[in-house]
Design a protein that fits this description.
Helix content is about 40%, strand content about 10%. α4 runs antiparallel to α5. The protein has about 400 residues and is of the alpha/beta class. The longest helix is centred in the middle third of the chain and has 23 residues. The protein contains 14 helices and 12 strands.
């Protein structure tokens, strides 16, 4: 009876308020289950993140996206699809994008282009970056995906195995120009962008998926190096993902839970007005706050209060051997709803507006139309051939 009364109270709360749906969650398989549908209809759910386990081919992916949209048209369908090592769909016609570091090498005329000193490599690299952004975004949108968490703005300090070739370059000026070009290609295909991992994950060696990294540099050092691309692109970036990294000379909390980073630095000092999307709350670097391990719901409330607009919770729908379904997400949504009723966090109309701004813009081409599109064919040629 207690859970029923809380559920009714939550429904009444949303009935009279502008709906704020901050949660991006995952689904288990190639099609929606009854449990998936129930979770996607929850008012706190704002979208779904897809993984390789949700992919069989283009037809299946398109059907899955249509089914998701049939539940709630405004649900945001996301995927981590940067290129290189981080690309979920690689078969049945999807272009396997090169790592972003290849663009930095092309800019600097390294590798196969080492003997070219005519300066054209810079222009060719930016042109290729735009082509790659367009190919990535247009292929995803042709299958019904709204949004990809790209590009990476981390600097290649030569220290981080988890970043490494996902970064464009060491020089923040080069990163700014190449990422701006990549985002232009995404924009041409009607897709918003997500710059990550603010203020910078490239300097630390630890992988925040498995441990909590610390970066002991001063605020001044970080602002005059890793943060420079965010400053340069403040009018271009539509969303930002904070790093699960602690910078102890700035704040005792990792960025996604830090009012210093998200409100004082990002919002006030840099003037960023787009969406702030937490990295996966299930990562090891996510829920250890002030020396304590928090539940997913408690961590989510802390992230929302710090300034996040959207929250990722990944790989919690996975059905393990002997299970008929996983109830981790059900418990999470229930507890987060209860914490809302108890005043631990509040609904935000601005956050909901920022979420909806990330939906696909304009009509997407079908896959068959995309294959005949001259812009796409030209972009494919530039994407796969660094010498063009």
């Amino acid at each position: 009876m207690k859970n029923i009364s809380k559920s009714l109270a939550l429904k009444r709360r949303f009935k009279d308020a502008f709906v704020h749906s901050p949660i991006l969650l995952d689904i288990n398989g190639l099609e929606l289950t009854r449990e998936d549908r129930r979770r996607l209809l929850h008012p706190l759910t704002g979208g779904v993140i897809l993984f390789a386990r949700n992919w069989h081919n283009k037809k299946q992916l398109s059907t899955l996206c249509l089914e998701i949209k049939s539940l709630r048209e405004e649900l945001l369908i996301c995927v981590d699809h940067e290129g290189g090592r981080v690309q979920r769909f690689k078969t049945d016609g999807f272009t396997h994008l090169p790592p972003m570091l290849t663009l930095g090498e092309q800019w600097s005329a390294k590798g196969a282009l080492a003997n070219r000193n005519d300066g054209w490599s810079v222009l060719e690299a930016t042109n290729r970056a735009t082509a790659m952004g367009f190919v990535m975004a247009s292929e995803l949108r042709a299958c019904g995906v709204d949004f990809s968490f790209a590009p990476v703005l981390d600097l290649d300090h030569g220290r981080s195995d988890v970043i490494f070739d996902r970064a464009f370059h060491r020089d923040p000026r080069v990163v700014s120009m190449l990422s701006k070009s990549f985002m232009e290609g995404m924009f041409q295909a009607g897709m918003a962008n997500c710059a990550k991992h603010f203020p910078g994950h490239g300097f630390v060696q630890a992988d925040s998926h498995t441990e909590l990294p610390f970066d002991h540099r001063s605020l001044n050092e970080i602002m005059n190096d890793d943060v420079l691309p965010y400053k340069a692109l403040s009018s271009t970036v539509m969303s930002i993902m904070p790093a699960h990294v602690i910078y102890p000379q700035v704040d005792s909390r990792q960025t996604g839970f830090s009012k210093v980073w998200l409100q004082q630095v990002l919002r006030e000092q840099l003037g960023f007005a787009g969406a702030i999307i937490s990295d996966d709350l299930s990562m090891q670097g996510a829920r250890e706050l002030d020396g304590k391990i928090l539940s997913y719901a408690k961590a989510a409330a802390q992230a929302l209060n710090a300034g996040c607009d959207l929250l990722l919770l990944c790989n919690q729908s996975v059905i393990k051997t002997g299970q008929t379904h996983s109830d981790i997400l059900d418990v999470f949504l229930q507890e987060l709803g209860e914490s809302l009723l108890e005043g631990e966090w509040t609904l935000s109309e601005k956050s909901e507006y920022r979420r909806r701004a990330l939906l696909g813009h304009g009509p997407a081409m079908t896959w068959s139309d995309l294959m005949r599109d001259p812009r796409y064919q030209n972009a494919i040629a530039h994407t796969l051939n660094a010498s063009l």
